[in-house]
Amino acid sequence: MTAFYLPEGLPVPTWEGDELQRPYWEGVKQEQLNIQRCGDCNAWQWGPEWMCHECRSFNMNWAPIEGKGIIYSWTRAWHPVHPALADRGPYLAVLVELPDYGNVRMLGNLLGDEHQEVVIGTPVHAVFEHHPDNAIPHTLVQWERGS
Amino acid sequence: MAERSLRGKVAVAGIGETPYYKHGQAPDPEIVLALKAILAACDDAGIDPAEVDGFASYSDDRNNPTRLAAALGTKELRFSNMQWGGGGGGGSGAIANASAAINAGIADTVVVYRSLAQGQFARFGQGPKIPAIAGDPAFNIPYGIMSPAQQYSLKAMRFMHEHGIHQTALRGIAMASYYHAQNNPRAIMRGRPLTEEKYDNSRWISEPFHLYDCCMENDGAAAVILVSAERAKDMKHKPAYVLGAALGSDGGTGRGAYNGAHFASSHFTSVSRNLYDMAKVGPKDVDVLQSYENFTGGVLMSLVEHGFVEAEEADEFLVLDNLKADGGKLPLNTSGGNLAECYMHGLELITEAVHQIRGDSPNQVKDVNVSMVISGPMVSPVSNSIYGSEASL
Ligand SMILES: [Zn+2]
Predict the structure, then answer these.
(1) Has B292 been annotated as catalytic?
(2) What is the pTM of this model?
(3) What are the C-alpha distances in Å from B262 to residues B31, B267, B276?
(4) Phi, psi dihedral angles at A131 (to 5 degrees)
């Protein structure tokens, strides 16, 4: 049993060339989820953008949040489309809605049995999957059942 | 003020296609396929290729109008246009752009074209083989959500959950395409009929999509020649008048990292209204429909968002008998479409819509006056178009 939900070898996240995303990917390495919050109207915003979609302010800040949400949608992927996944077998991805933070949504894998029944609305919490020994050290944010 | 509309101003005068091949198997380079399709469309219209003075495409087509114009002996290039967006989302958008150019006097003879040679270039349904990814895709690719099937499965799954729709509705859509392909000599899947049992037993690609819910990937090219309505009247074929064409999406669709407004959507909610307003028809007036099947879940949401079926009635309605060219309530994807004829990014759906107006489809619906196309759903921008006979004007 590997420590990683998916085998290494997939493209890894980087903010290189895209400074906009840096506070998120730096934060998760410290087990801190940060998302954007408008400095003028206080709206939560995700994914990262330069302008607030509510009030057109460019004054976008980053705020720490708790990784708690509910499953909004999901899929079990069976057909591998990358060589790193050729021997993995099916795996689960969930889109998680975070009701405490303006219903922003985050995508990750659902930890546990890949054949488990997945029910939309189930509470989940974030689990940080660290890859410190990767050529590009990074952390993925996975989800596990339970609040 | 005069009404600003394309309705009845422009018509399809010619259509052309190369043979369709399995992906990577075209004997010609992509630009040769494009040229052959354009020549075939000119021949179909009965015009000299040198008369083509405008080019419109979509999905970042690699075949530059300047190079095409030089090869075709175009006398004057007057319009070159690319609709933004990937996949088949821009198919009808390219028709809208070309029609607008003709109507505005920018060009007289505009070809809409799309060419694909995936042996020469990369395939669509594969993840990128690179060490790292930045920007928006960094939020999905490292989690193994890479292919269009995987990405759009999340939309379909949520939509089916919200409305209590079952797998059988997706199956009905797949069955219609395969059923019609069996009569179509051009269809890649001719001779390979689909049964309910075969569908149910097929492997999952990404739930809720089975193998047969997913489009093929093909090589080939298609082209459509548009001219003014007046000119089309005196040409070889019965004109297929553009009654309307629309493109776009709701404003919030483009939010990143799976946070688009109306997530569980084909993205047609506003675009469908704009199309019907221009065409002055509603879903009940549509005699035959081509609805782009990148995945059957996209067709399901497109049908609902264009008013062809209520979401709550989708299970009951989306069965083969209702979708057949011969006597179905809503003849759907009558050439076999992206699932079973050919994946030409949906331009093959527009040529089929024109065949239905002309009356020469291999699955001809009786007395077609209004023939509609819904181009690639779930991307943004999306687009759609409606074609009509003389009687529809
Ligand atoms: Zn704001």
Answers:
(1) yes
(2) 0.97
(3) 38, 8, 21
(4) -125, 70
- Annotation says B343 is catalytic: yes
User: Coil, strand, or helix at residue B286?
Assistant: coil
Going from the Cα of B23 to the center of ligand 1, the distance in angstroms, rounded, reads: 47
Q: What's residue B120's pLDDT?
A: 79
Give the start-to-end residue ranges of the domains of chain A: 19-65, 67-147
Decide if A53 and B252 are in contact by the 8 Å CB cutoff: yes
pLDDT tens, position by position, B213-239: 999 989 999 999 999 999 999 999 999
Whole-number Å distance, alpha carbon A36 to ligand 1 midpoint, is 10
In angstroms, the separation between the Cα of residue B42 and the nearest Cα of chain A is 39
Architecture of domain A67-147: Beta Barrel (2.40)
Alpha carbons B144 and B92: distance in angstroms, whole number:
31
The CATH number of the domain holding residue B226 is 3.40.47.10
What distance in angstroms lies between residue A45's CA and the mean position of ligand 1's atoms? 9
CA B12 to centroid of chain Cα atoms: 16
- pLDDT number for residue A2: 59
Chain segment B232-280, per-residue pLDDT in tens? 999 999 999 999 999 999 989 999 999 999 999 999 999 999 999 999 9
Q: Does A50 touch chain B (CB under 8 A)?
A: no
